Amino acid sequence: MNAVLKLLHHIQVHFNFRVLAGDIGFNVHTVFLNCINELGTDEQIAKWVPLAQNYNIIGTYAQTELGHGTYLRGLETTATFDMSTQEFLINTPKISAMKWWPGDLGRSATHALVLAQLYIKGKNYGMHPFLVQIRSLHDHSPLPGITVGDIGPKMGFAHVDNGYLFLRNIRIPLQNMLSRYSQVLPDGRYVKRGSEKINYFSMILVRVNMIGEVVVGTLTKACMIAIRYSVVRRQSEFKPGAAEAKILDYQTQQGKLLPQLATVYAFHFLCPYLLDYYNLVHHEIKSGNFKSLPELHALTAGMKALVTEYSTAGVEVCRRACGGHGYSMLSGLPSLYSYVLAACTYEGENTVLYLQTARYLVKCLAMGQSGQSLPQSVAYLTSALSRRCQARDKSDFLKTEIYLDAFEHRACRLIRGAASKVQALVHSGLEQYEAWNSTSVELLEASMAHCQYIIVKVFVDTVEKLNSDPGIHISLKRLCHLFALHWIRTNAGSFLHNEYISGNQLDMVTEIYLDLLLLLRKEAVVLVDAFDYTDEQLNSALGSYDGQVYQRLFEWAQKAPENHQVNSAYEKHMKPLFHSALSKL
Amino acid sequence: MNAVLKLLHHIQVHFNFRVLAGDIGFNVHTVFLNCINELGTDEQIAKWVPLAQNYNIIGTYAQTELGHGTYLRGLETTATFDMSTQEFLINTPKISAMKWWPGDLGRSATHALVLAQLYIKGKNYGMHPFLVQIRSLHDHSPLPGITVGDIGPKMGFAHVDNGYLFLRNIRIPLQNMLSRYSQVLPDGRYVKRGSEKINYFSMILVRVNMIGEVVVGTLTKACMIAIRYSVVRRQSEFKPGAAEAKILDYQTQQGKLLPQLATVYAFHFLCPYLLDYYNLVHHEIKSGNFKSLPELHALTAGMKALVTEYSTAGVEVCRRACGGHGYSMLSGLPSLYSYVLAACTYEGENTVLYLQTARYLVKCLAMGQSGQSLPQSVAYLTSALSRRCQARDKSDFLKTEIYLDAFEHRACRLIRGAASKVQALVHSGLEQYEAWNSTSVELLEASMAHCQYIIVKVFVDTVEKLNSDPGIHISLKRLCHLFALHWIRTNAGSFLHNEYISGNQLDMVTEIYLDLLLLLRKEAVVLVDAFDYTDEQLNSALGSYDGQVYQRLFEWAQKAPENHQVNSAYEKHMKPLFHSALSKL
Known about the structure:
Two copies of one chain form a homodimer.
Chain A: H1 2-5, H2 7-15, H3 27-39, H4 42-53, E1 59-62, E2 78-82, E3 87-91, E4 99-103, E5 111-120, E6 123-133, E7 146-150, E8 162-167, E9 170-173, E10 182-184, E11 190-192, H5 201-230, E12 234-237, E13 244-246, H6 251-286, H7 293-320, H8 333-341, H9 350-369, H10 400-427, H11 432-438, H12 440-465, H13 470-490, H14 492-496, H15 503-529, H16 535-538, H17 549-558, H18 568-579
Parallel strand pairs in A: 1-5, 2-5
Antiparallel strand pairs in A: 2-3, 3-9, 4-8, 5-6, 7-8, 10-11, 12-13
Helix pairs in contact in A: 3-4, 5-6, 5-7, 5-8, 5-15, 6-7, 6-12, 6-13, 6-15, 7-8, 7-9, 7-12, 9-10, 9-12, 10-11, 10-12, 10-13, 12-13, 13-15
């Protein structure tokens, strides 16, 4: 498997950032900077960017409120234009409007990019970004009218600075509203350039980046730890009379870990696909063309939801696959889990994101049905559906066109089905919003099916295009097959539903899936080693390269502080009780 | 819904233990005590139990080893009988044989019930329990030959005492082997009374108790927090122009939380069923009848796996359903999650347990096929299968016999299918152990299907037998229907597979499931309030009875220690940088 080891170089290029581990403070400072660069005028960029780049100010992105999360139009913070002084008045009208969660806000930031409802002469113009200084540059104390602090302990990120912010009549100059795409003129007129969706654009980049930098890397590390441990750990008599078997030789362990390994590769290949498309749309927008923004938004929303959901579940599968030792912090797995878990909620709650994608899909379907041409990623929505899966024996499920058709068929069917239900409910007299809500469980499933189809397609396309060594190519193809068939198995109901796939064909899927597990069992260690995280980066007693699991667990455990302290309960409480046992034993 | 409130009293009876919250130290001390009571002779009980009851000694149950978990026959610790001194020599032969994980061992216990391989004159008699003193009763220091300490930090239970233990030539008297069911005589003869499975018996009780006391209570609390929060939290414009809607009015939120609420009731009713059966078998064993032990073992193994798995998943669904605030420790949800999570691994790793149940099922099937009568819980394995689901319209899925038949049919089909595959592989030339391993992914699915069938059946039977108020009865029936239909939807593939249920019927299931969500939406708050945990017990800013979510979050956050400390980074690192910005702003 020397061939597979060569993957290392190919992967390394994309992993330069990841291997730096990157848990620096002032994380959100970068988001602050990006926002100014994206949403600021040239003058605003010239003024603020150098200050932020040199850390002369520390910025935070203050969007989420105590009572308002992913639904941005619901934000309650206000920015009221005062023409007499040419200033905005920034206010937190009530407790649920407090900014809550922004990173670096509670103990660090000097400035906040506050997202607030713009009011001019009593009229609301929607959410806009405002630069607000919150702490003194003299002594770091909160400015008058500012209440700021840390929101307290969180799962996993106990020590990270997340803050709250209450603003009382804070005055900022007219120039502090970021004005590349919408501007308030001194006389109170409001000028808009481009789509109102542009305020979401910086969030799109955050989502694309977090998939690559935070989420996929975490699943990769977890796979590396669990797969390495599974060839060291032995359990139970496998063959009667023989030594206990390596746990990776158990089919159930393969069925847990190898689909996660395939997922690592699938998501790894998804990242450049999303980034390329982001860059394309970014380029278009810079030249005033906003037409691809809805597709990019819908694509990244759903993908953020799916990738974070599956990566989190995958890390937990890896953790549990290590049995009791996966529960020890010394395995490194619990901290990976609580790290990636947060991503299911931050930068957009996953259910809300899936439904945003669903809304786009239903809209596109209607457009397509009325004869309009559709963007590339959703063009399949109006294609003619093949009626049945064409597989005749199990080896047919190693043909990418067979399973791609299955994913396409299913996504199409679910989206069309959900859209029809919405329409039927409206026809039966329900309001559009009621009809939508009454279908949202099904819309969610349809949205996931769409994302799954795209991911399988990107995996297939990427592997086909790679000019790699034949040995690598075979391994990657196996991973791709396993990945697709794993999703067919775990979502079997929606493939069987309209008899697109028969029970008999599903049995073939299971057979070939189990065959692939056995083949990939032999390649699993090199396929994770290819990612080449160092022992220091993994920080795991279970996952080190040398496989000295038990020695390391024992060494590390002995260093625990509890082992170097006196048990104070003994002297005070237990001693008299124990002494009275002496005469009886 | 006054009727539903009356549930309170009914439930309270079963919940007396839970509401005490019960996080006392010396948790495993009770297991130690139970083991002596179960496995000790009358003399051993008379000697040791009073000492332990009075806390004159603190006991731990030392079974799991660093390199050996659920597979008990693989344990490496040895107890060698030395006839010349009438003692056992207890030894840890190598590092992987160290006892690892026992509760209270690392910093507290004076005695350990050590599970070790018994050797007499060079012959191994398998695992037996030995009472070993590990610390001095004079000064609590480890005795000569004992290395003992804490295994270090764990997910969630960072401060709980879990220990390691290395034993070097520790001598204990002959009388310290617990000898109710197997005994070593002074001349080295080995006497056995009853099944060798009896050593597992105390673990069965631990599993039954943990389901009721630890697992179900945790899911209940999580549901209570999430459902209460969901009628306070508002998000997004539901009806255009109206106020933001309560999130529990969203179908997707109902689809997350209400199945969890139904699961709480299902598992709640499962507990007395398991405990009753345990008591019955316990009674039989005390009178020397071991015939029901295999069934009890298989039943509780699978149920422990399923209940812990679904409860953990359910707590996490509740946590995420609270959005960002569910990630805050102040919600109370993260600690519930990491508490229940551990139960998926301790007292038997879930995959291993499911496969133990599968082994029993396959064995029973073969017995049944050869004409032998089967124990009650598995009698259905040889029943004639109805060919198709008889439902004609959606209301048919509110008939318990319709969905019970579906669960029975599916479990039966999966178990028979997996058993046939094992047989076919053996016929084709594979060794039995290879055939078993090559089928274990399918055996696992079959085992889960069996457990699901039993749980749905117990829910149906319990609701039918309850003499409750008609209002309560209707609510409980709805929960039971929702519970069953939720599992049909989420496991749709295996119901559709052989066309037992058609795609059309599955659409009916979805329809009636969505109808039930809407009906139960109105009853959800009273149905969780019925469990009546106090605010102090929930310890959640989101779940308090008065619904003052935002005020409480803000109050509690302000108390965080970070808000009462000076930011030391400012003076040292940031001040010069910030000061240089002063001239530019």
